[in-house]
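Internal tracking record. Fields below are filled automatically when a chain is submitted to the structure queue. Please do not edit lines marked as system-generated. If the sequence contains nonstandard residues, flag them in the REMARKS field before resubmitting.
Queue: standard
Priority: normal
Entity type: single polypeptide chain
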Amino acid sequence: MSEQTLSKRGQKGVPAGEAFGKLVEVFGQLYNKESNPDGIVSLGIAENGLMHEELVSYFNQIDIASKHLTYGDGPFGSRALRSALASFFNDYFHLVHLVLPDQLLVANGCTSLLDLVTFGIADEGDGILIGRPLYTGFQSDVHTRAGAKVYPVSCEGKDPMSEEMVEQYEKELLKQEREGIKIRAIILANPHNPLGKCYVRPPTA
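SYSTEM-GENERATED OUTPUT FOLLOWS
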C-alpha cells in the first residue's frame, strides 16, 4: 500500500508494521517435529504450550448456542464471562479491593486493551513507564495509534517484582517530568512478561 493511500496517522504506523513483519516471517516458518522439522524455534514469543492438549480437550466439550454468535450482553464481554473473571481474580489474587463484573471489559488480547486505554488517557508524546526487562510489543501497543512512548525503568540490580522498584519508578517519573514529559501510566504485567512471575501484595498494596 502506497503512502498516498494512507492517512497521516496511518503513515506514522508504517514503521511499527515493518518491524512486526520480521516476526510474521518467523510465524510462517515455525518448527514442528512432524510437519516442519527444519523450521525456526522461536525464543521470542511468550506462549505457553504445556497445556495445549488439555485446553483443546476442554474447548471441544463446550456447547455453542446461537446467542454466542450475537452481540449477546453487549460489547464489553458476556456477563457470564465477566462474572467468572471477577470470581477468579477475587479468589486467587488476594486483592485489596474486590473486583466487580461491571468493572471489567473483555477484548481480544492485551494489545487491544493497551491501545484502547492509552488512546483514552494519553496525548501524543505522553509517556508510559514499564520496568525492565519488558516485552517489546508494549512499545508499539501504546505508540502506533495513541502516539505515546514507553520509558523503560531500570532495575539497577533490584528484583523487578519487589517493593524496591517503587523507588525506581518514582525516580524515572521525576526525571521525565523535569524533561517536560507527562507520564500518564505505569504498566505492571501480572504475570510479568517476560519473567512469568506474579506480583505479591507488598509492592502493589
